[in-house]
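W.,

You were right to be curious about this one. When I first looked at the sequence I had no strong expectations either way, so I just let the prediction run and decided to look at it fresh. Below is the sequence, 191 residues in total, followed by the output.
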Amino acid sequence: MIAKTTQNIKHVILFHIMVVKQMVDTFIIRDGHVLLGRKNRGIGQGFWNGFGGKVMPSESVEEAARREVREECGLTVTNLEPCARLLFSGEIPEIIEAHMFLVRAFDGKIVPSEEMDPIAWHSLSAVPYGEMWPDFRLWFSHVALGGFACGHGHYKGHALIFHNIRACDSLPPIETLLPEAALYADVEALV
């Protein structure tokens, strides 16, 4: 009983001191293909990914998704379809709150950016999962077909150590996923 109470107190403390960073990632789908860019810098360098990044303090997640797509590949998107709500923890004392979107209509011409180059269409039957963050294998094909995904993944470097990422009937409020992520955060390092 005492150990469980101590653990609960640590989780309460964790909620007060942890940093949650909002991120977005947008996947453009057309004719059975997904548009991906190879990341040239920062976290995930060398991986194929959708187009996304940090949500600025003055932005909604939808505004951030539109901005990031425009900055990283030159396209203008409007109809964002929320498809996954995921939390990621790792070796740093912050939790990433990731809002994933699908887009099926866009305007403009694809222009590689300093951050994402090359940019290429990949068949949905041949997504380069071996060159992406490991969690994509768990949820991307499901959401590309119209489903939803939610859950938490814990990384050590680029390795997904454990997760509970799963198909969902709808996207739950992010607050319902925070306790899951807190269980895996390095509580001892924070307290």
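Here's what jumped out at me. The two ends are 20 Å apart (CA to CA). And, maybe more interesting for your project: The CA atoms of residues 97 and 189 lie 20 Å apart.

Coffee later to discuss?

I.
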